[in-house]
Amino acid sequence: MPDIAATAAMSPVAHTATNTAADATGTKAGRLPSAGRLLAAQIRYQVRLLISSGRAIAVGVGLPVILLVASKGKDTRPDVAGYAVFGLTITAWSTYGVRLVAAREEGVLKRWRATPLPRWCYFLGRILATALVAVTAGAVTVTAALAFYGSHFGDGPDTQLTITAAFAIVAVLFLGAFAWAATATALTRVIPTVEAAFPTLIFIYFPVIIVSGVLFTNISEPHWLSTFATYLPAQPLIDAVTHAVRHTAGAPFLPIRDVIVLACWAIGGLLAAIVLFRWEPHRPTQRRAARTES
User: Where are the domains of the chain?
Assistant: First the structure.
């Protein structure tokens, strides 16, 4: 994994923190850079790692655009919001979650924890970096829709993407990506191995996006299930992006209820991650027993 190989030599962020801590024990008093500089450096480092893997680009950006292009020949206009949310969520959920479990099981997180870098800085920097890449994936899909369909790509002739609406879309995409990444961070607590990471994450992911209508609308869905989907972090995100695209004069750019639902998932996921997050790799009992016998 690129995450593991790059961190084995430690990042410039860790080098800075370690060197300043070493200076503090010598003749010169060392001091860590400001929290803002450390966080910004950590975000840049994690973004480079995520992009260098290629998976985030191939799946999060490539697949939604392919689906968008494939739908161009149809009579109806594509569900741009659904495709954008698909690319965003698969990046912030499965790609991020698998990499986080891999880093933990290889001892990368344990080594990061031993550096003077504040734990919250690594923790928050990784989530924010993932959110930025996920937002980029969603924004690329919307941009591709503009290229193929022009500024009028909604369900009717009066829909048009304005500059203000574009900013609203980016803002809600970031909130949604943060919510998905924070929740995935909390879930990694119950994932014991790298091999179990992808099946576990996908087992949860696909039912959510199916009932939320990310890729298609299920008109035969029972009312209670469609109502339940409005409290999950996928459908409110689709509704918010769609609302911004179809914005009319005098109306708010984003629906308040959907923003509140996404904010609750973001805050709840972050709090759960803080409480449940595991830095140490899992040590299966049978493996320890085998080593003891040998």
Answer: 2-14+35-282
